[in-house]
Amino acid sequence: MQGNEPRPWGPAATVALSSVEWKEATRFDGTDWGWIIISIGMAIGAGIVFLPVQVGLVGLWVFLLSAVAGYPAMYLFQRLFINTLASSNVCCDYPEVISGYLGKNWGVALGLLYFVMLVIWVFVYSTAITNDSASYLHTFGVTQGLLSDNPFYGLALISLLVLLASRGERFLFKISTLMVLTKLGIVAFLGIAMVKLWDSANIGALDPPAVLVKQSIVTLPFTLTSILFIQTLSPMVISYRAKENSLAVARFKALRAMNIAFGVLFVTVFFYAISFTLALGHDEAEKAFRHNVSALAIAAQFFPPGISTVLGVILNIFAVMTAFFGVYLGFHDACRGLALNLLRRRFEDERINRAWLNYGIQIFIIVLAWGVIRLNVPVLYFTSISSPIFGLVGCLIPAWLVLKIRALEQYRGPGLIVIVLTGFLLCISPFLAFI
Known about the structure:
single chain; Amino acid/polyamine transporter I; mainly alpha; cell membrane; globular; membrane
């Protein structure tokens, strides 16, 4: 998180620990729990309520093939992303890591890609939380009109969220825990509640191989983003490296947190999507798509009156808030790295005031998000470009570093081929949708 400065790794950082020292150093603590919570919170965004509808549209077999290819690849490239960050001599932000490997110019260029990937989601969640919260307040009679029409409502709301997110790790972990556990519980409950409606007829027939493969590639970005939390990995690794004296311990803890978050997300979200698909089928999904309603609206007919509405409000607000916190951490990391890269070209490092830099970044994020809210830009139309950028930042760039940097050659292997192939498919998937 912000405020973490690069640690000058010396010989002591790589000295092997005894088994007793290692066990003590890697003991599970509140920081580990906090980063697991933040990662899960980032992955389960507001789109979770539309996941069963999207799976129902493409069909069970397409989703299964996409999941079989995508989820293992996602695990591999998130693991590689952590390893490339953890192996850097200096690790204070993503652009700085790239600069350490390839030089300052590459740090700016690839840091901009990382910036663009995250800024899209800052736009999405800033707009979503402003419009959705205003809509709920109006629907339940708290306000007579929509507060989102007031230009200062969005400014106040985003300022409050940025203030909360910038209070520090411990505070953010505390306020996120209840929200993340609640929305994770709702997703699991919905999946289990639909089991009684499973129908084997909803499995559907297999498409021709060419169609199945093409549709699976087109669906790949959607499948991956259903449990993706790469946005939180960079600040997580930076946090561990700032706190731990041993590089091996920092790497181990970051990988462990990623493994646990990935496992929980995979089991919960995958079951949730499959359960709804087996219960509702393609026709119900098409009907929901035409009427632009979520899985909760479909499930409402099977629940007591009012339950679906309450679950929907809680899940939506908590999902958007915790996802915003996760995106904020990564975006602050990207902004800080780019700013430091440019400032160091003109000023000595000691002359750069980190506190004022952090304040400036916070103000920049608030103004940027507020501007998008006021323009009411249909940012969801632009999210398709996040797939190629994500393929580059999450897959191809780490793979390139492993192939180019001698210090990273230990990560070369069959898994790297899978990561490169996945990155390539992510880059071309938006274009296949138009063929």
